Amino acid sequence: MRFPKTRLRRLRKGENVRRLTRNVSLSKDDFLYPIFVKEGIEEKREIEGLPGQFHRPLDGLEEVLSECEELGIPGVLLFGIPGEKDEKGSEAFDSEGIVQRAGRKIKKSSELTLFTDTCLCQYTSHGHCGVLSEGGLDNDKSLKILKKVAISQAEAGADYVSPSAMLDGQVKSIREGLDEEGYGSVGVMSYSAKFNSSFYGPFRAAAESAPKKIEGASKLDGRKTYQMSYGASDQPLREISLDMREGADIVMVKPALPYLDIIRRASESFDIPISAYQVSGEYAMIKEASRSGVIDEKDAFLESLMSIKRAGANFIITYAALDVARWLDES
Fold first, then answer.
1. Beta strands in the chain, from DSSP E residues, in sequence order
2. Options 147, 254, 287, 309, the catalytic residue
3. 194 catalytic, yes or no?
4. Which residues does the record give as 5-aminolevulinate 2 binding sites (predicted)?
């Protein structure tokens, strides 16, 4: 029996048939937009290394919130930069802290879903994601503080708190704390598979959270003792599994593009929404390459984001969300 020649180009010969036959697509529903609110400034300031992204004053949030709503972005991920820092990150759980005040403002003025970053690195004088003792990061003492941070963010209106410290037991501690305080409806999006990556550079400058070298704390080795090695492939799946058992509602893989294999394995292994963070370095590389004329910015962002969706992410945290929403409107 003779079989007819297979000509897959017949499925690519026109834009309409390409639209009909593709099985992965991008929409505005796929994006969460990160915003930075900073204490002590009166007008927005562009962040060095993150073109098109800004530190925003508390009283200047309406502009970006309105823009997100008008473009149809479902929600924002809120980061705060405090005016003062100390060794235990006290501003992170202060009811009048910058994120807490911003959270109340956001919930009062918009319908956006509010995710808050739940960590200490922006708030500690040493830049680490927890409190230090005996030359290293004290996991269990840090959990007690992270629980307080999460509760304070829930009180301020967070719909989801997002623990990003990669500490053992952080989801369990936060989930128990929220439930005990009557915030059972507040969800947890855990940075479950967060790698010790070189792609965080622009963010660390934006959040003023670069870890400092601490005398007598050589055991820390940067953040390698709590963030995962980029050589790990099975460990991130164990981390996700543990976070699910501890009560996570959404799990995250961060960064996204260098870890598409982890996104794929997680999507095939677990029945839970998976977010992926296209981090600052990924964003900045496309911006810089497009600025120099070697790639097209729109095409590069759409291609990279499509690859993240194709790998299995349910939604993507990206600094390009507003631009992509405009491009989708134009298409």
1. 31-38, 45-47, 50-56, 75-81, 113-118, 132-133, 136-137, 160-163, 187-194, 250-254, 274-278, 315-318
2. 254
3. yes
4. 280, 319
